[in-house]
Amino acid sequence: MSARATLVGQVRSVLREAVEAHRDDEDTATLLRRQLDRMDEPLRVAISGKVKAGKSTLLNALVGEEIAPTDAGECTRVVTWYRHGHSPRVTVHPREGLPRQLPVSRVDGALRIDLDAAPEAVERVVVDWPTRGLRDTTLIDTPGIASVSHEISASATRFLVPEDEPREADAVIYLMRHLHRTDLRLLESFQDRGVARATPVNTIAVLSRADEVGVGRIDSLMSARRIAQRYRADPRLRKLCQTVVPVAGLIAHTARTLRQDEFTALAGLAAAPRDELDSAMLSVDRFTRTGDGRARLLSRFGLFGVRLATVLIRQGFDDPPRLSAELVRRSGLDELRETLSVLFAERRDLLKARSALLALDTVLRDRKCPDATRLLSSVERVLAEAHEFAELRTIGVLRSGAAEIPPEASAEAERLLGGDGGGTWSRLSLRPDADRETQLRTALEALSRWQRWAESPLSGRAFVGLARVVVRSCEGLVDRLNEDG
Amino acid sequence: MSARTPIEVVELAAKAVNAYQREDLAARLAQTRSRVLDPVVRVLVVGEFKQGKSQLVNAIVNAPVCPVDDDVATAVPVAVRYADAPGVVLVGEDGSHGEVAVEDLADHVSEAGNPGNRRGLRQAEVGIPRSVLAGGLCLVDTPGVGGLGSVHGATTMSALPTADAVVLVSDAAQEYTATELEFLRQAARVCPMVVCVLTKIDLYPDWRRVADRDRAHLASTDVTADLLPVSSVLRLHAVSTADQELNQESGFPALLAHLRERVVDRAAELSRRSVAHDVRAVVHQLTTSMEAELAALRDPDGAQGLLVGLHSAKQRADALRERSSRWQQTLNDGIADLISDVEFDLRDRMRQITREAEAQLDEIDPALVEDQFVDWVRQRVSAAASATFVWTHQRARWLADQVGEHFADEGGEVLPDLHTHDPDTTLGRAVPLKFVESESFGFGKKLLAGVRGGYGGTLMVGMLGTVGGLALLNPISLAAGVLLGGKVVKDERKRLLERRRNDAKTAVRRFLDDVVFQLGKDSRDLLRELQRDLRDHFTACAAELSRSIGESIKSAQSAIESDRGERSKRIQDVRAELNRVSHLAATAGALDEPIGSTR
Fold it and tell me: Would residue A285 count as lying in a domain?
C-alpha cells in the first residue's frame, strides 16, 4: 500500500507547509495542527438521524456497553463524543470558556451525564472510556433532528450540495425509520445539524428499529431485510449513502450486555407451557401483568426481543453466551459492523486525508494568508492527482445516477473502484480465497473491457471520463497482483 | 303508537301526494325515499404510511379484506360495505365497473400488484355480510402511499367533505407529527366528525404516554375528537379464539360503540330529520290549497279579497323563478366572487411557492437534487391545493346557506297569511347540500392528473435538459484543473451552475403557471356546477310553491262557485283531509325527536 502511504504523506506535508505559513496567526496554526494530529487519531464516525430513531441505543450496541444514556423521551441534547481513554472521564466543552471535567457517575451500569449548563451553551461533551469497542473508532452521538418540520428548509437542502466543507466527523451513520419511497421524509431524515455532511462515499444508512417493522412478529427482521434491500435499490438513496443495513438496535444492545438474571428470567419463560406463554405475550400490557420484573425485561428487550429470545432458547441457544451471540447476529449488528469495517475502517486513511484536505481548503479560503494561492493549488493538486480521490468521486457520480450508464456496467464500475471494499478480491467480485491466477485473469479481462469502452467512439463523453478512471483502477489492480507474484 | 320508520312515513306521504295529483311533490319524495332506502355512512380511514389502516379495517369487520403487508402499501382506496354475499367491484378512473374475486383484491389495490395505480382504478368496492356494516357503514381504506402531505393526501382531503366521518390512524410508536396535526386541523373544518385511533398498543409499552401526548396535541390544536387506543392484532386473535376478555383489551368494543353511536346513529338521525323536513314541507304545500279552500268555503263573501291576495302571491312566486329575484342575485354574485377569490388565493399561494423555490434554488445545485426538489415542489403544491380546497368548500357552504336564507325570506313574503306556523319547515331553509354528495366532485383527482402532466411535461424536461453531460464535470474538471489552472475551471463551473439554476427557476415558474391554470379551471367548473345545482333546486322549490298557490286559487274559486248545501259538506271533507295531512305532519314530526325519546 505504498500509494496510500504517499497520499497520507503528501497531505501531511501540505498541512505542515500551511502551519508554517500561518505561524504568526496562532489560532489558525492551532486549528491546522489539530488537523495534523487528527490524521493519527481513530476514525470519527457520527451517528445521526431523527429524534427517537435509536441513535444512542445503536451507539451502545456498537460499543457493547451502556455508555450513552437512553430514555423514552428525547435525551441526547448535545453532541457527545465517545472515544477511547485509559480512565473514564467526562469533559464539557462550553461554547465560551475553558473545558471542564464532570464527575463520572454510573447508575445501573449506565453512564449518567448531568450537564451543569444549558445545552445551548455547550459545544460538546467528550467521554473518554476504557473500552475495546472505541479503540479504532471514535463515535459521535448527535441530538435528533427535529421531527416537526413542514418542509425541506433551505438549510436542509444545502447539505446535499457537493461543495465539500470541513467536518468534524470522517464518516456518518444515518438512522432512518421505515418510510414509503415517495415519502419526502425519507430524505429529510438525512438532514443534519452540520457535525457531518452526508456524501455517498462516507455514509451508511441504517434502517433502525427493524424489530418494529413487522408489528413485532417473529419474522420481523426478515421483513426489515427485504425493506433495506428495496432502499438500497432506490436511486435517491443511492445518491446519499453507500448502503442500507437493517439493525434492531435495542436487541443488539441488550444482547451484548445480557445479564445472567435476565437470561434466567427468559429461560423460565421459555420453559413455561407454550399456550400460557403465547397468551402472556400477546400484548405489552398482558406481559407486564404476568409477573414482577417483567416491565424491566420489556424495557430491555421489547416485546419482539422477548419473543425472539424465548424461541431461540427453545431452539437450543440455552446458555447466555450462545443466546447473546445469536441475538446479536439476528439483530443485524454483525452485518453493520462488517459494513463499517469494509467501508470505513479499510478506507480510514483515505477518509482522513480527505477530511484534512477539505478543512485546509476552507481555512485557506477564509484566512487569506499571503501563501494561500500557492497552498490552495497544492491542495488541488493532491486532490486531483491521487487516484484514490478520483475513485471516491467517481463512485459519488455513479451513485448520483447523473451519468447515463447501463446498470450492470455501473455496478461493475463501482465494485472495481472499491465501492464494496478495497480488497483486490472484492473489487473483482471474487471470493476472498480466490488464487492469484484467477484474480489476475479477471483483472485483465476487466481492464481490456473497460479500455474498449473508454476508447469506443460510441461512448458518451461522460461515460468515457468515467471509464478512464475505472481503467486506471484496473491497471492498479493488475500492478498490485503482479507485484505480489 | 305513532312511531313509524322513516321509510313508512315517506311512503305515507307519497300516497297522500299522489292522491292530490301533485307529481312535482312526488318526485321530491321519491328522492327522499331512495336516500332512506340506501343509507351510506362513509367513514374514511386515513393516516400515514404503515400505521395499520388496512389492518384496522380488517379488525373492525373481522375479515382479511384489505391486503396487509410489512412493506407494500395500499395504492387504491378500498371501500368496505355491507352485502349479502362477498364480492369485489373495481371502479376505474373512467367509471367502468368490473368484478373480481375477493382473493384477487390484493393484485389490484396493493402497490405490489398495481404499482403506482397503473391499472387506473378509482376505487375498489368490497361487499361482505357483516352485522357491523348493516347500518350502512362504509369504511374506506385510503392509500398510505406517500403519506398525508403528498398528492395522495390532497386527494384524500378532497374526499373528506363527502364523508360522514374521518378516522385518523396513527400508531403508538410516537406522538402526532406536524403533518398529522395539520391534517386533523383541516379535516375538522370540512368533515362533521373526526375520530382518532391509536393503533398497535400491543407492541409499545409506552402507549399510554403517547396517548396522553396526542390528547394534549388535540386539545392544543382545538380539534374536538376522541382518541381511542386499539390493537388490531389482539382483536383478530380475540375473535378467532372467542376470547371476550381479550376483545375488551383490544379496545375494539369501545371503537365500535363509538362508530355506532357517534357516526352511524348520528347519520341515521340526520337522515330521519331530513325525512321529517321533507315530509313536512310537502304537507305544508298540500295544506296551502286546502286552507285556502276552507277559508273560501267559510266566508265566500270575503273570498274575493283572499283571491286577490293569492293572485299577487302567485305573481310573487313566479317572480322567484326570475333571474332578477334576490336569491338568484345572491347566488350569481356569490359564485362570481368566489371564483375570483379562489383564483386569487391560488395565485397567491403559488406565488409564495415560487418565491420559496427560487430562494432554495439559489442555495442548491439543481442538477444534484433534482428529484428531491421536484418532490418538494409537488408536495408544496398539493398542500396549497388542499388548503385552497378546504377554504373553497367552507365559502361555498356558507354561500349555499346564504342563498337558502334569502330564498326562504322571499318565499315567506310570498305567502304572508299562510306562513304562520313552523317557520322552519317552510322553504329550503335547510338547503340539501347536493354539492356535498356529488360524485363528480373530482377536485383532487383532476389536480393529481394536472400535477402528473405538469410534472412529466414541464419540470422534468426543464430540469433534465440542464443535467445532461454536465454531471461528470467534477472528475474531469479536476483533472483538467491541473492543466488549465484551477481558476478557469472554477469560473466555468460557477457559470454552468448559474445557468442550471436559472433554467430550473424558469421551469418551476412555468410549472406553477400550469398548476394555477389547471386548478383554476377545475375550481371554476366545480363552482359553476354548484351554482347550477343550487339554482335548479331553488327553482324547483319556487315552481312547487307557484303550483301550490295555483291550486289554492283553483280550490278557492271552486269554493266560491259552489252552492250552500255543497259547501257545508265540502267544509267537512276539507277538514277531514286537513286532519289527515296534519296527522301525517305529526308522524313526520315524531321522527325529528332525539333518538333517546322514541326508544
Answer: yes
